[in-house]
Amino acid sequence: xxxxxxxxxxxxxxxxxxxxxxxxxxxxxxxxxxxxxxxxxxxxxxxxxxxxxxxxxxxxxxxxxxxxxxxxxxxxxxxxxxxxxxxxxxxxxxxxxxxxxxxxxxxxxxxxxxxxxxxxxxxxxxxxxxxxxxxxxxxxxxxxxxxxxxxxxxxxxxxxxxxxxxxxxxxxxxxxxxxxxxxxxxxxxxxxxxxxxxxxxxxxxxxxxxxxxxxxxxxxxxxxxxxxxxxxxxxxxxxxxxxxxxxxxxxxxxxxxxxxxxxxxxxxxxxxxxxxxxxxxxxxxxxxxxxxxxxxxxxxxxxxxxxxxxxxxxxxxxxxxxxxxxxxxxxxxxxxxxxxxxxxxxxxxxxxxxxxxxxxxxxxxxxxxxxxxxxxxxxxx
Amino acid sequence: xxxxxxxxxxxxxxxxxxxxxxxxxxxxxxxxxxxxxxxxxxxxxxxxxxxxxxxxxxxxxxxxxxxxxxxxxxxxxxxxxxxxxxxxxxxxxxxxxxxxxxxxxxxxxxxxxxxxxxxxxxxxxxxxxxxxxxxxxxxxxxxxxxxxxxxxxxxxxxxxxxxxxxxxxxxxxxxxxxxxxxxxxxxxxxxxxxxxxxxxxxxxxxxxxxxxxxxxxxxxxxxxxxxxxxxxxxxxxxxxxxxxxxxxxxxxxxxxxxxxxxxxxxxxxxxxxxxxxxxxxxxxxxxxxxxxxxxxxxxxxxxxxxxxx
Lengths: 381, 309
What we know:
The structure holds two protein chains of two kinds. Chain A is mainly α.
């Protein structure tokens, strides 16, 4: 019966199926190279992009900032020492702290006594001090005094954007010059470390065997010496200054890079494309520079991005404990050190360099994180 | 394991020897001598003093004496404090530094583990982002900036804590917080990454399928495995605390080793600087050694492969 029915279907209904194009092997997404993928991933990372912009602005400011006003780096003038920050336009918004006044609360037995304390603190310039009574009760009076120092010193037409330090030098100029020095040291130190580290690690990894063994034993001993100890000893021995800080930082800075590069080269050199290059008669030098280094460039870049903030921190640390940049030159570390000396009375001397160094460190760390994610194939979608 | 310990201790001794040799010859090359600090001495007195300190001997003999002195814990005589051995100066100041460092390390690690744990549990949630932001700020902002903020806000403006100096427990609160932020942030980041990875692994799914309670999974199965690698970070963290302590002690005027170092730098007191540096070096290396060995004990894989780090 069944057989009969199938036979009953008219012939013309049986149309041969049209072969569809085979789509299972088709690549639907556009094909991108690894670097294109990395760039896409990085551009999607808003925080990292924002950090790049912030850092570029800071670098530009460190180049042009010092020449934006008429004050020089070492123009000392004690008559204008310890002036608070004052910026045109912004001075009208009182809570920003750019209005060029010093203010504090003073206590005393009576209101009068507290007021006198305030006058004594602010050069006895009674005409330029505004007193606001916070607590008038007997025994624990409290007044808030605001000292208009620019008027008192007859400098109404002058604007020190970030104030002046204890020697009357303009903080704006010194801040950007200090940033320039700090960034310069960090960049130079990081790039020298990069060059030495890549060369050392590359040679050890590529040649392997005895060369690798000897080089790695030396490295192991060097890594065992804490970098703080070497840096401190070098700073004692060398004359303080930019060059010696760079030397001290690079002496220890390259070891991490060397280890990473060696490990990667060791992994990559047994790959087929290296064998192919050799079979075709490429020299060792060509194999290293054309085939191996481009493939580990991601790791090298990430490592350098984390080395730079380390160098900035160590420079600031050395300058802070008195082994770094010497006056009259400034760096972020020396500015912060000066700021601490005056923290309780003139806190603005600490805040500006402290905020700037924090911004720089955060920016570099975020960029480093972003690059690490961007170069990680697992993150590419 | 014995072979592994032997190898590590061997490297430690070599490293210490190199540092000691390096610092000795550096000291010979530096200007100044103990006698510069003294007032006018006659030739005879000079000769007597030189003889007393062994400065007339040829350099190799001095070197041998120096090294054997080091082995016995003799770090030389300070230039700045007349006739006081460096060892005594440092011993007087070990207490505050040790207390500060221990408080910061213990508190920082515990808080960091909690922070990382919370972040990992609420993966990609609000708490995760909050703790990630804290971690990024904590690892980026230098500790002296934190110290400045704390000192200004809590000591100078609010007057909750003493501004500086050392004495009661209250004095140690602000410096401990300033010092512990970096280890806290580092531990938080580390624990979060590890914990997210562990919580995604197969044995956690198995535990869930068997009906283990959520706290049981997080603490018994998750945290235990995530904490093992943390041991490797604690060593470098303790080392970074010593760098930090120099600055923090100077800022809060704490009579510790770090503050002594900074003051010695100011007055060019080379023997004290060298002695402190050597002591730092010894502590650094000892801490790294201990954490390496501890890691070998906890994680059997390290022991078997002979510690390929």
